[in-house]
Design brief:
The complex is a heterodimer of chains A (184) and B (491). With 184 residues, chain A is an alpha+beta fold. Chain A is built from six helices and four strands; from the N terminus they run αααββββααα. Chain A has a four-stranded antiparallel beta sheet, covered by helices on one side. Among the domains of chain B are: 115 residues, no CATH class; 169 residues, no CATH class. Chain B is built from 21 helices and five strands. Chain A: InterPro entries: Ub_conjugating_enzyme (IPR050113), UBC (IPR000608), UBQ-conjugating_AS (IPR023313), UBQ-conjugating_enzyme/RWD (IPR016135).
């Protein structure tokens, strides 16, 4: 089934067929869904957001630009998205690769955001199968301008956000590295 | 455009005069799989998804993906009307897209000045022109039967009449033939599901030949009005009441694979229930063999045979099970410790103030007799420590593991799995190591350093330490975490 699926899809779509071959073990349904998300992203791009798969179609690189009128304005950030085998029933794992000073992002780039956690009975996660890469990136982008200071990962940043925006912005700029300068 | 790459997509409509149809097509897509609805089901909150999509989603979190209202699979109802809409749209689509593209191409040609004359003609007229051209060229062969030249003109029409024409296809219905050679023609996206049941369908076709003539849309979702095979839906079991043995028996009764842990069997059974019920929902029920095939696909991608390549990432998770990890890799840890000891015996009493990379190993080797790590009677806290200690000894992993330990300190309510085991050690240590505390940079969050200070300090107090005093009191010297359980057992 898997081999059939990959031959089918590689003969089907020119733009993503190369990446499909690399992602051999992934589920055909996951691949299909990611292909159509990619198609949507490519044909109707959202300003300030871009994402593209690596050689493995289940691992994407994304770029966000900081929203205007926030300390992150005119900065750009690189992220990685890793889609699980049961995507879209479980959320992708999203990490900031660019160092960022933010109340809800820790020093290794992990993000505290409800829609990035699986939902279910007794869990406070808010992931839903109807969300997609674009909506996830938009949520992360809006998180930059509206941090959730009630449950911070970076306590100092949360305090500073409320007390001293000037200093906050200074720390943001001090921590930021433009993606072009990041060697990866 | 190469017809082999012609996958139906809503973006096909963009840049044609029928661009508005892109939105219509998107509205006929399931929000979960982003494909056309396949057996659409409506939830109690009136949202519609494919049967299998919504069943899988509900078994994952019990809520509607669109509005997050809680719902149950048993409350799903078929949305027959929508299914009708989707299948009629799919049937009409190939023609519509062909006309839209021809229209667009005409408009494009009209803009090129040199081709004005040609652009005014529609494809039939072009074919006529070509036909005339060919016939004149074949003057030398006039003696040949007129039948032949007639055939030739048909060829010309096929290859040049329309850019979007699919040359290898005699019919212009936009369908493709089954690659397994059963002779059926279907929409390209119906090919993949069809492949799985090609054989079955051939059988069914033979039986029902007189009743169901093969239509233009002979693929998978062709006949919504066919009477469904009476099949009973099955429900999920009360898994928490079943012990592993009972669960295994249940799986055997159902004819499902029964290997793996109870947890895996529960997941497999849930998947089976979703597959089975989705097939019941469908107007065209699938065979059990077919469903088992799908279950096998699940097994290979998400179940027991799935590749566990995400292991390296798991260690970064906040809910990372340190104790479980330590138990699972106990053999490796013990071996590393044994190696370290052997190394120590080979090169005895070397001052352990060398390079960063070997310090974890090296200094554990300096206290071989004090280190009880390799036996099986470790308390929970120590096995978690053992885990981080080992990762520390491995330079490639130490960065990954170090990060969560440092960054989550006291900042996030749910994140202190790795820290907690240390706290009982650290608290008694604080009054004792006052003189060391001063030499440290005073970062209260750096528990790793504190605990190692305690280690140094207690050794100063209770036992003669083998280390030279400048090493023992140096605040920069990192001590291995292996040694902590030793302190635990002492205090």
């Amino acid at each position: 089934m898997a081999s059939r699926a990959s031959t089918m899809s590689s003969s089907a779509t020119p733009s993503v067929s190369q990446s499909t071959k690399a992602a051999a073990p992934a589920n055909g349904n996951v691949i299909k869904r990611l292909q159509s998300e990619l198609m949507t992203l490519m044909t109707s791009p959202t300003p300030g957001i871009s994402a593209f798969p690596t050689a493995d179609l289940t691992r994407w690189n994304a770029t966000l630009s900081g929203p205007a009128d926030t300390p992150y304005a005119s900065l750009s950030f690189k992220l990685t998205l890793a889609f699980p085998a049961n995507y879209p029933y479980a959320p992708p794992e999203v990490l900031f690769k660019t160092p960022i000073y933010h109340p809800n992002v820790d020093m290794s780039g992990r993000i505290c955001l409800d829609i990035l956690k699986p939902g279910g009975q007794g869990k406070e996660g808010a992931w839903s199968a109807a969300l997609n890469t674009e909506s996830v990136l938009l949520s992360v982008q809006s998180l930059l301008g509206e941090p959730n200071n009630a449950s911070p990962l970076n306590g100092e940043a949360a305090l500073l956000w409320d007390s001293n925006q000037e200093e906050f912005k200074r720390k943001v700029l001090a921590r930021h590295v433009e993606p072009s300068e990041l060697e990866d | 455009m190469d017809s082999a790459y012609d996958v139906p997509d809503s973006t096909d409509w963009l840049n044609t005069p029928l661009a508005a149809l892109a939105d219509l097509e998107n509205a006929l897509h399931c929000q979960i799989c982003k494909e056309f609805y396949d057996t659409p089901m409506i939830t109690s909150c009136s949202h519609t998804f494919c049967s299998r999509c919504i069943r899988t989603s509900l078994s994952a979190d019990g809520r509607c993906p669109a509005c997050r209202a809680s719902d149950q699979a048993s409350k799903l109802r078929n949305n027959w009307q929508l299914q009708e809409v989707v299948s009629t749209f799919l049937a009409a689509r190939p023609q519509a897209i062909q006309i839209a593209r021809a229209e667009r191409d005409n408009a494009n040609n009209a803009r090129k000045p040199g081709k004005r004359k040609r652009a005014v003609l529609d494809s039939d007229e072009i074919a006529e022109v070509e036909k005339g051209g060919r016939t004149t060229r074949s003057k030398s062969r006039r003696t040949e039967a007129s039948q032949l030249s007639q055939q030739e003109t048909i060829e010309v029409e096929d290859s040049e009449g329309d850019d979007d024409f699919e040359p290898e296809q005699p019919k212009d219905d936009g369908l493709v033939e089954c690659p397994l050679g059963c002779g059926k023609r279907m929409k390209i996206e119906a090919v993949e599901p069809h492949l799985d049941r090609c054989e079955d369908e051939k059988e069914a076709e033979k039986r029902a030949k007189s009743r169901t003539p093969l239509g233009a849309f002979g693929g998978s979702r062709a006949s919504p009005r066919q009477t469904p095979r009476p099949q009973d839906r099955i429900s999920e079991l009360n898994y928490s009441l079943l012990k592993e043995g009972a669960m295994r028996k249940k799986m055997d009764e159902l004819g499902l694979p029964s290997f793996g842990s109870k947890q895996l069997m529960v997941r497999r059974h849930t998947e089976w229930v979703n597959l089975w019920n989705a097939s019941c929902d469908s107007s065209r029920a699938r065979s059990k063999r077919d469903l088992l095939h799908d279950l096998d696909t699940w097994e290979r991608t998400q179940g027991g045979k799935a590749p566990t390549s995400s292991q390296g990432h798991a260690i970064m998770r906040k809910d990372f099970d340190g104790a479980g990890w330590a138990n699972k890799n106990k053999d490796d840890f013990s071996r590393l410790i044994a190696d370290a000891r052997r190394k120590k015996n080979a090169t005895p009493a070397e001052p352990a103030s060398k390079s960063e990379g070997v310090e974890g190993m090296g200094s554990s080797a300096t206290h071989p007799d004090e280190n009880p790590m390799s036996d099986g009677t470790l308390p929970q806290a120590s096995s978690s420590q053992q885990c981080s200690g080992n990762a520390h000894a491995n330079p490639s992993e130490s960065a990954e593991l170090g990060a969560p330990t440092l960054s989550t300190n006291g900042m996030h309510g749910t994140s202190s799995n790795l820290d907690n085991p240390q706290s009982p050690i650290q608290q008694p240590s604080e009054p004792a190591n006052g003189h060391l505390e001063k030499t440290i940079s005073g970062n209260g969050g750096d528990r790793r350093r504190e605990s190692q200070d305690y280690h140094l300090n207690s050794q100063d107090g209770k036992e003669p330490c083998e280390l030279p005093s400048h090493v023992a009191t140096s605040p920069l010297k990192k001590m291995p975490m292996f040694s902590i359980p030793h302190e635990l057992s002492e205090t």
